[in-house]
Every structure is written in C-alpha cells, then in structure tokens.
Amino acid sequence: MVNRRSFLKIAGVGGVVFASRLARGADAYATSQDEFFFVQLSDTHWGFQGAANPDALVTLPKAIEAVNALDPQPDFIVFTGDLTHTTDDAAERRKRLGGFKEIISRLKNQKIRLMPGEHDASLDRGAAYSEFFGPTHYAFDHKGVHFIALDNVSDPAARIGDEQLGWLKADLGKQARDARIVVLTHRPLFPLFPAWDWATRDGDKAIELLMPYRNVTVFYGHIHQEHHFKTAHIEHHSARSLIFPLPAPGSVPKRVPLAWDPLQPYRGLGFRQVEAEAQPVEYKISEFPVVGKA
Amino acid sequence: MKRRMLLGFFLAALFETSLAQKPEAKTVQITARKFTFTPNVVTLKKGVPVVLEFTSADVFMGFNAPDLNIRADIIPGQTARLRFTPDKAGSFVYLCDIFCGDGHERMTGKIRVVARGPE
C-alpha cells in the first residue's frame, strides 16, 4: 500500500511537485474543512493499438490500481477527455466507451467526473459519449470550489460554441468575483501551439468570461504531457497521458508519439493528484508514474 | 492641346508600367482526403498573390496555416477559395483543423514561401 505521504515523497524525488498559488484573498472560504484533493487522469485512449504503447491493454488498469492504492482516497477523480481512441465505426466507438466504463468501475472511489475529448466525441458530436456518460458540459460545487467542465471537442472544429459560452456566462454570473473556480476541459483554452491543433478556436471567449474572476485555474489534457502556463492571472495545467507521450510543443517537425522504450516502459505516462487549499488559494500538483500489477 | 496629349501619353505609360509590375495571382489546387493533402508541399513567392482552391474527396475538412493566419472550411462538393499574398519568406505548417478520424493528427502539409528572384 502506498500512502499519500510516500506518494508525495516519490513525487518530490522526481521534482514534479508543482505548487500553484493564486495569491488573492478568499478568506470567506478558508477553513480546514475546505482542503481536499482530487485525482486527474487524462487521455487514456482506450482501444488504441500501436507501437507507441504495446501495453495499451494494461496501462489504464495499472493506473486505476495505483489510484486505488492512494490512502486516503481522493474526494473524486476526473478524466479530462480522450477516454477512448477514435474510430469511424459507430458500433466500435460504443464498444470502446463501454469497455472504458467497465474498467473505471474498478475504481474504489466511484465519485468520478468525466468529459469527452475529440477522439470520443468529434465524429458524432458527442452522441455516443452522452449515451454512456451524460452531458458533455456541466458544473458542480465541492467544498467551496466551483468546478466547470467545458466541452471544446464535440464540435469537430474545436469550438466551445455560442450556446455553451452563454451557459458559461450565466453560470459564472452566479459566482462571486473571488470565488474559487476550477475549469476542467480537454483542449487548451489558449493557443498553446495551433500548428499542432493545440488550441480551442473560441477559447479566447471563455478566457474573457473567466478573466474578471480572481481565483481561476484550468486543468486540461490533449497534449499528453505536463505544461504550465498563465493567461494573466489564470493558470492552465495540462496532464500527462495514459497511452503515449507527445513531444514538447514545436520541439520536432511533426507531432508524433514518443517511441515506447522497452527498458523504461510507461515513461512519460502518469496521472496527478491536485490538493486544493483555501488559504491561500493554492493547488499543489503532484505527478505520479504508472505503477501497479494489472 | 499639345500639353494635354503629352499628359495623356504620360498617364497611359504610367498605367501600363503599373500593370506590368503587378504580379498575376497564381492558382494552386489542393485536395483533402482522409488523411492527406495533395499536394502536401506548396511553394509560393513572397509578394505574389495566390488563390488556393480546396476540394474534399470525402469528408468535411479544414485548412489552417496558423502562422500565415489563413484558414478555410473544405466542404465536400464545394470548392473553397482563399486569396492571399504571402508577406514573409519561410516554411509554414498547415493542418486539417476539423477532426476527421484516426489519422487526423497526421494530416499536415507545408507552405514554402521563397523570396522573389529577378523577373
């Protein structure tokens, strides 16, 4: 059993603890009860077959075993899209979504929040995804933090769209300007590297709506690696994948998966734990490798 | 009268000169199909206007060259036209920005803009 403290130690050895402090007063929310942590997994691409991950069938189960070994357990678990690998075959898409659903049923903690990636949703505008997992965008509150799941993938053109932006505006309108807000999404909302399609076409509109709020942090996936960025005071943190890592933005001519290394299997893959602290408003991010016996 | 004729000749000569200096717009046809652009390398001259004509051989696609700030939707059964004048030399990636299936991520090409040589 690996407990939380030893996990943090592992993370510390690897130098992958990232503290994100939003140094703005949110005293109204500050009680010890408000502190909690959640786990973010991303880009599991269930159904992928290829040399980039010859262990694709066991990578996600191993990660789930690692999450199950956390002690204490997280308050909830989020998957930020690309749950499945895309297929043109609608029946196969449903089979993969069903397979993914079965695998995550093995999570000890069944408080799970899902959102689609373009591989799940772009070819049928989220139809199959919604059959299995419900709405593609939604909001919820947890211990003083307002979470917003944004869908920037059901439109194959990578737009959030005016309707959802209207919903976002209305949802934010109910929040105080110093509310603690976390946005969960798949693609980066800012133009991280458009030449590799690492952007949301109307992401600037979402950022504009979020900008008046002083404590906003975005957690996303899509780029299969850690990346940390700020648009003014809004922080954006991408997560590692659980299928194959991709190169750093623009570091090579083509966006192709990094080669699988049999001597270091699962290198570059992993998941993260996010500790939400209320005073000061802070998110401590700890990155974990894929381990487990699955 | 003589002065007017001279002015007319002068203006006509000026007009012809400007016509001769204005480069013709070149047309380049690009076909998109799962999961390639043909051609996938397009060479253009800096300062020479070009019309890019796109058609799709199968599904809805997108053309996007973000560093040149040009994009177009490519709808099956239609020809999309994009007129622009490259204003900088270099090599610029273009990609399909409408998710079109497994292989979408590989659907890229390159626009090479070269400096204009002596005419």
What does this protein look like?
The complex is a heterodimer of chains A (294) and B (119). Chain A has helices at residues 4-13, 56-68, 90-104, 118-121, 127-133, 162-173, 203-210; strands spanning 17-22, 36-41, 76-80, 112-115, 138-142, 145-149, 180-184, 215-220, 227-231, 234-238, 271-277, 281-288. Chain A has seven helices and twelve strands. The model of chain A is unreliable at 1-16 and 23-32 (pLDDT under 50). Chain A has one domain (4-288): Metallo-dependent phosphatases (Purple Acid Phosphatase, chain A, domain 2, 4-Layer Sandwich). Helices cover 23% and strands 23% of the residues of chain A. With 294 residues, chain A is of the alpha/beta class. Chain B has 119 residues and is α/β, with parallel strands linked by helices. In chain B, strands 2-1-4-7 form a four-stranded mixed β-sheet, with no helix packed on it. In chain B, strands 3-9-8 form a three-stranded mixed β-sheet, with no helix packed on it. Chain B is globular, with a radius of gyration of 20 Å. Chain B has one domain (24-114): Immunoglobulin-like (Sandwich). The longest helix of chain B is centred in the N-terminal third of the chain and has 20 residues, at 2-21. Chain B contains one helix and nine strands, in the order αβββββββββ. Chains A and B meet through loops of A and loops of B.
